[in-house]
Amino acid sequence: MKMHHYIMSWDTGVAKNAKFLNNVIKQVIRYTYTAIRHKSRNKVARESGGICDLQECSVSWLGTHAFYTVLSKRPDVYDASTSLKSLQFELSLHRNKPLRHRFRQVVKEGLKGISALHF
After folding, report:
1. Taking CA 13 as the corner, what is the angle to CA 67 and CA 3, rounded to the nearest 5 degrees?
2. CB 6 within 8 A of CB 13
3. Whole-number Å distance between alpha carbons of 33 and 36
4. Which residue has the higher pLDDT, 66 or 5?
5. Chain segment 35-77, per-residue pLDDT in tens
6. Are the beta carbons of 76 and 8 closer than 8 angstroms?
7. CA 82, CA 63: separation in Å to the nearest integer?
8. What is each CA distance from 110 to 13, 14, 70, 113, in whole angstroms?
9. In the chain, what percentage of residues exceed pLDDT 70?
10. Which among 90, 71, 70, 89 has a CA at the least distance from the CA of 80?
11. pTM (2 d.p.)
12. CB 25 within 8 A of CB 67
């Protein structure tokens, strides 16, 4: 939602900047994975015996799904762009089928909360 507001305030046109938008989304997801991994390996986590067995493909799929879900709430803005189609294509790839099954319950619970969002 915050990203949507930034995009609207820039007034640059989503359809014209779809490639840029897709790259930003991928970088945000990659940064999130790196930040989680870094925090799970810091001194406090090690001393506490913390373990974080997180795979990059899991974070990537969940992040892609989250962006797709939120951005698809505004079809008037994102349907004309290839950004939404690109995210949908990424989620539909065969290699993601096990992740779709694995995170089905997480997504189901998350979608309950997002239905109340209006932006």
Report:
1. 30
2. no
3. 5
4. 66
5. 999 998 888 988 988 888 889 999 999 999 999 998 888 877 7
6. no
7. 18
8. 29, 26, 11, 6
9. 86
10. 71
11. 0.82
12. yes
Amino acid symbol at 37: R
Secondary structure letter of residue 93 according to DSSP: S
Token couple for 108: 């189901």
Q: Encoding tokens for residue 96?
A: 């993601």
**The residue to which tokens 């795979």 are assigned:** 55
Alpha helices in the chain (DSSP H): 2-10, 18-40, 43-48, 56-71, 75-78, 82-92, 97-102, 104-114
Give me the pLDDT at residue 58, please. 96
**CA–CA gap between residue 38 and residue 40 (Å, rounded):** 5
Give the rounded distance of the alpha carbon of 115 from its chain centre.
17
Q: Which amino acid is located at 42 in the chain?
A: N
Query: How many CB atoms sit inside 10 A of residue 11's CB?
Result: 6
6, two tokens = 């930034």
